[in-house]
TrEMBL record:
<dbReference type="GO" id="GO:0003700">
    <property type="term" value="F:DNA-binding transcription factor activity"/>
</dbReference>
<dbReference type="InterPro" id="IPR001845">
    <property type="entry name" value="HTH_ArsR_DNA-bd_dom"/>
</dbReference>
<dbReference type="InterPro" id="IPR036390">
    <property type="entry name" value="WH_DNA-bd_sf"/>
</dbReference>
<dbReference type="GO" id="GO:0003677">
    <property type="term" value="F:DNA binding"/>
</dbReference>
<dbReference type="Pfam" id="PF12840">
    <property type="entry name" value="HTH_20"/>
</dbReference>
<keyword id="KW-0238">DNA-binding</keyword>
<keyword id="KW-0804">Transcription</keyword>
<dbReference type="InterPro" id="IPR051011">
    <property type="entry name" value="Metal_resp_trans_reg"/>
</dbReference>
<feature type="domain" description="HTH arsR-type">
    <location>
        <begin position="1"/>
        <end position="98"/>
    </location>
</feature>
<dbReference type="InterPro" id="IPR036388">
    <property type="entry name" value="WH-like_DNA-bd_sf"/>
</dbReference>
<dbReference type="InterPro" id="IPR011991">
    <property type="entry name" value="ArsR-like_HTH"/>
</dbReference>
<protein>
    <submittedName>
        <fullName>Helix-turn-helix domain protein</fullName>
    </submittedName>
</protein>
<keyword id="KW-0805">Transcription regulation</keyword>
Amino acid sequence: MDDLLHLGDEWAPLFKLLGDPTRLKLLLAMHYRGPAEATVSELAELTGIKTATASAALKNMEAAGVISPVRDGREVRHRLVDDRIHELLHHLGGGHAH
C-alpha cells in the first residue's frame, strides 16, 4: 500500500500540471513536433495561445522539470524532457509529426 501512496504523491503534481488546458495544449504541440525544439512564438502560433500566456505556462513547466529550454543564439527553444509525460501523451492519442 505504501508504494501506491508514493505513486499518488509522485503523479499528483504532474496531473495538476496537465489539468491546465493551456499547458496541455503546449505539451501536445511539443510532443507532436517530436524531438525538434520550438520557440515560444512557434508554440503560441501552433496552439492559438497568446505569446505572453504561452511564455508563462512554459516557465511553469520548466520549473516543474517537464520541459527544458535550449538557447540557440538569440532564441530559446523548448523541448519536452519528462519521459513519463511523453508516454502519457501517447496514451492520450498525441502523436508525432514524423
